[in-house]
C-alpha cells in the first residue's frame, strides 16, 4: 500500500507542474504579459533638438521591427516629403527644411513580438544671422567663347569659410576638361580650364549653396545652377608693333584687319599685354574722356575686352593711322567695315591676346582670370 501512495503523490505533483495554464502555472503567464515591446524607434534629429542644419535629412529607424507609418510636418501642418526603405526599417526625408522652423514627427512600428510602438517629437532648425544671395555666370542656354570663366559672386557679403562654399560647387562637362576654382577675392570664386575650352563643350554647373555656412552667421540663400555651351574656337591676337589684328578660327588665320593700337611712347596709353576676354558688345559706344579733352565721342561696333578701358571698335576718324601707327589711348581702332565684320563674329568669352606693348594689363579688370599663371591659379583654391 505504501508504494501505491507514493505513486499517486508523484502523479499529482507531475500534473501540477506540467500545465502552465492551470491554477498552479499562473506565474509564467504573468511574466509574459508584463514584458515590454522589443521594437525601438529612434529619430535624427532627436526630440527637442535646436539649431538643426537644414541640409541634413531627417531619419527615423526601428530596431527589432518594421515601421508602419512616419509623418513629418512643418509648423503649418503640411507634410514634408520622404520615403520608407524597402525593408521598412527606416524612413528618410527628401525635402530640404526651412530656416528657423519647427517640425514634428510621428512614427509607429510593429515589433517582431507583434506589439505596436510609437515615437513623437519636435525639433527646430537654425536661424541664420543673414542669408546673402549669390549669382552665377554664364547664364542658362548661353553660348560663349573658349576663354569664358565660370563666375560665382556674393554681392551682399564676404565669404569667410571658402572651403565650405567650394565643396558645394560642381562642374560637369561633356568632354574631359581640366580646370580649377580660384578665389579672386572674398566675394568671387571663378572656375576656368587650364587651357581654352574645347569647342562645342556642354557645361553644367551646380552650386548647392542653400544651408551652407559662409561664416559670420551667414548661410546660403538658395542653390544655383546653369547649363551653357562653348562655341567655336575664335582667338584674337594683337601684336601692337605690327599695326594689325588677326582673328584665328580653330588655330588657323580667319581674318586680318589693319589697326591702330595704344600709343607706343606712353605706357599709360598702351594696349596692355595679356590674355583678356570679350566682355561686352555694343553697336555704339561712348568713348568720351574729358581727362584728355574730348567729349561726345561715339564709335560704332564697340567690343569691350577689359574694364581697364580697352575696346576693339571703329574709328574712321583715325583712318590715316590705322595699319601704320599706334595713336589710340589704349583701344584697338579698326576701319568701320572691318569693325562691323569682327563685331558680328565675336562671342562673349572669346580670348583677346595682346603682346608687344611696354605695359602689362593690371589685374584690376573684372575678368583677369587668364592673367594668372596656372600653378598660381590652382593655389587660389580653398581646397588646394
Mean of residue pLDDT? 91
CATH-assigned homologous superfamily of the largest domain:
L,D-transpeptidase catalytic domain-like
Kindly state the percentage of residues in helix: 10-25%
Strand content: 35-45%
* CA gyration radius, whole angstroms: 36 Å
Main β sheet profile: 5 strands, mixed
Distance between the termini: 100 Å
Number of helices: 5
Low-confidence stretches: 1-31
The coarse overall form would be elongated
Can you name the CATH architecture of the largest domain? Beta Barrel
CATH class of the largest domain: Mainly Beta
Find the count of extended strands (DSSP E, 2+ residues).
26
CATH topology of the largest domain: L,D-transpeptidase catalytic domain-like
Keywords: Acyltransferase, Cell shape, Cell wall biogenesis/degradation, Peptidoglycan synthesis, Transferase
Organism: Actinokineospora bangkokensis
Pathway: Cell wall biogenesis; peptidoglycan biosynthesis
GO molecular function, one term: acyltransferase activity
Descriptive notes:
The active site is at residues 313, 331. InterPro entries: Big_10, LD-transpeptidase, LD_TPept_cat_dom, Transpep_catalytic_dom. Keywords: Acyltransferase, Cell shape, Cell wall biogenesis/degradation, Peptidoglycan synthesis, Transferase. Residues 234-355 form the L,D-TPase catalytic domain. It holds the Pfam family YkuD. The protein has 384 residues and is mainly β. The protein folds into three domains: 40-124, Immunoglobulin-like (Sandwich), CATH 2.60.40; 135-231, Immunoglobulin-like; 234-371, L,D-transpeptidase catalytic domain-like, CATH 2.40.440.10. Helix content is 12%, strand content 36%. It is built from five helices and 26 strands. The strands form seven sheets. Strands 20-19-18-26-21 form a five-stranded mixed β-sheet, with no helix packed on it. Mean pLDDT is 91; it is low at 1-31.
